[in-house]
Amino acid sequence: MGTMPTPRVYMDHAATTDMLPEAVEAFVEQARRGGNPASLHSGGRAARMTLETGRDQIAAALNAEPVEVILTSGGTEADNMAVLGLYRAAREADPRRTVIALSTVEHHAVSETAEWLVAHEGAELAWLEVAEDGRVDPAALADLLARRGDEVALATVMWANNEVGAVQPVAELAALCDDAGVACHVDAVQAFCAVPVDAHLRGISTLAVSAHKLGGPMGVGALYAPRTVKLAATSFGGGQERSVRSGTVNAAGAAAFGAAVEAARSDLRGEFLRRARLRDALVAGIRERVPDAVLRGPEPGAPEAEWEHPTRLPGNAHFTFPGCEGDSMLFLFDAAGVALSTGSACNAGVPRASHVLLAMGVPEETARGAQRFSLGHTSTQQDVERVLDAVGEVYERARTAGLSGHVPGAF
Amino acid sequence: MRVLAAMSGGVDSAVAAARAVDAGHDVTGVHLALSRTPGTLRTGARGCCTIEDSRDAWRAAEKLGIPYYVWDFSERFQADVVDDFVAEYAAGRTPNPCMRCNEKIKFAALLEKALALGFDAVCTGHYAKVVEDADGHKELHRAADWAKDQSYVLGVLTAEQLEHAIFPLAETPSKAQVRAEAEQRGLSVAKKPDSHDICFIPDGNTRGWLEDHMDLDSGRIVDTEGNDLGEHRGAQAYTVGQRRGLHIGRPAPDGKPRFVLEIRPKTNEVVVGPEQLLAIDVMEGIRPSWAGLAPREVAALGDATDARSEEFPVTVQVRAHGDPAPATASLSREAGEPRLHVRLAESQRGVAPGQTMVLYQGTRVLGQATIDSAHADRPVVAAS
Question: Nearest by CB to A407, which of B75, B113, B117?
Answer without folding.
Answer: B75
